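This entry is passed on directly below:
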Amino acid sequence: MVAKNKNKKRDGYLDWDETFMLMSKLIAQRSKDPNTQTGACIVNDKNIVIGLGYNGFPVGCSDDKLPWCRNGELTKTKYAYVVHAEANAIMNANKNVENCRLYCYLFPCNECAKVIIQSGIKEVIYESDKYKDVDIFKASRKMLKMAGVKVRKYVPKNKLVLRKNNK
C-alpha cells in the first residue's frame, strides 16, 4: 500500500471564478420572481466578498402587492418595480466597490451597466448572454466597453451543484 502524500493539496477544489459564480447562483435562490432568478457577487482584489444581491422589489415594497407578470401595461408588470441583482449587490456592499469584480449569471442590462460604471467596478464576469441581440444589452456592452470595464464570459470548469431556473 502506497502512503498518500499529506503535503500535497487536494485536487478538484473550486477556483475563484467558480466560487464566486456559485455564490451568485446561490444568492439568486432568494429571488421570488417566478420566471427569472438571478444573483450577483462583488469581490475585491483580495477575493473578499463585499456585496451580494438578487433580483427583487425594493425594501418596503411588498412582493405580495406588486405584479410578477412579464407582459402587459408597464405598471402591471414586474419591470416597473424590480431592482436587478447587480444594482442590489452594489447598494448592499459593505465597502466601496471601486476597482472590484462583479460576478453575475446574466449579462447586465443597460440600466445595470450605468450603475456598474458609475460605481467604479473594473470587471464583469457573466455566464449567460442569452439576450445579446436585444437593444438594451447592445447598449450595455457599448457603454461598458467605452468606460473601460473589462467584460469576461465565465466558462464552467466543473459541474456546479446548483440548478439555474432562468426560463
